[in-house]
Amino acid sequence: MDGLDALRAKVLEAVSSAKDEAALEELRVATVGKKGEVSLKMRELGRMTPEERQVAGPALNALKDEVNAALAAKKAGLADAALNERLQTEWLDVTLPARSRRAGTIHPISQVSDEVTALFADLGFAVAEGPQVESDWYNFDALNIPSHHPARGEMDTFYMSREDGDERPPHVLRTHTSPVQIRSMLAQGAPLRVICPGRVYRADYDQTHTPMFHQVEGLAIDRDISMANLKWVLEEFVKAFFEVDDVELRFRASHFPFTEPSAEVDIRCSWEGGQLKIGEGDDWLEILGSGMVHPKVLEAGGIDPTEWQGFAFGMGIDRIAMLKYGIPDLRAFFDSDLRWLRHYGFAALDQPNLYAGLSR
To answer: Which of 139, 167, 176, 225 has fewest C-beta within 10 Å?
Structure first.
């Protein structure tokens, strides 16, 4: 087929001379489009003899492939040139000084959780965790809380919705971290010494209550544990946490379904000038509940109450944070107010420990 070399040279020259993608597209249509020069020549193959077609066919296909490759290469070159031109006009001086930013702070709840963990770790307690959505068996039944107990009502507990006809046990947002104690007993058996910090949920909201708050509970199980051991542990914790040399605790008889005997624990304090002082004065402040683990709770945890006994206690992390750092309103913990956090927050790198101090 005559003229292929001349057509190749003409097309490649035109591709090389194209100034933009629009001109390149026009050239593509005029050359390899349906009515382009190369396409028209390929239609002539039908009028050739088989021998001529064997020569002309491969030559036309090679020309078409070469033209398409040249078009693609030119298009990529034009795109690169356009990008370079754009980058020349869009630039940023990275040597400009950055905007000043304040270092982040640790939320008081996180700080107090770390303080509590450090103190009880020094007393030999491990940390145990569990799910926040619990079955009512872990949250109530295993803890000797009867079905008619007010705490199981929807006025106090958040129940998870269920479809009609669902016969599975109901699930709740845990109302305390006591279910973690049951899970720990079932998983580890006795002896056992753990604390269970975490979020809990109750349908309550005022200056000293929120629907979601934080709790830490402790559990110690052995063969010869008594209330005397409980008293010593709590005294050591309170002295270290509030950073006082001496403290006086008062145990008042109370009732909890999961402990027997049960006791509310008060701490001696004073409110001179509106400021709380721990360990002195003539006032008393309730800080936690405690008692000896009920035998039925031990049985639910797979532990023989005739061989083992233990004590348990629980306190609100938010509440003791308020007392230690003078925070007047519990709801402020969850307001996401940066001004409040900058005032009460803690330096990110000042981790509480027993040697350098807790509330650094």
So the answer is: 167
- The percent helix, strand, coil of the chain (3-state, each to 5) is 45, 20, 35
Residue with tokens 């021998």: 51
* CATH domain 105-347 topology: BirA Bifunctional Protein; domain 2 (3.30.930)
Highest mean pLDDT among 32-41, 71-80, 221-230: 221-230
The angle subtended at Cα 1 by Cα 55 and Cα 17, nearest 5°, is 115
Sequence length of the chain is 360
Residue type, 119: L
For the chain, the first-to-last Cα distance in angstroms comes to 91
Tell me how many helices (H) and strands (E) the chain has. 11, 12
Domain range summary for the chain, segments of one domain joined by +:
4-89, 105-347
Segment 247-268, tens digit of pLDDT? 889 999 999 999 999 999 999 8
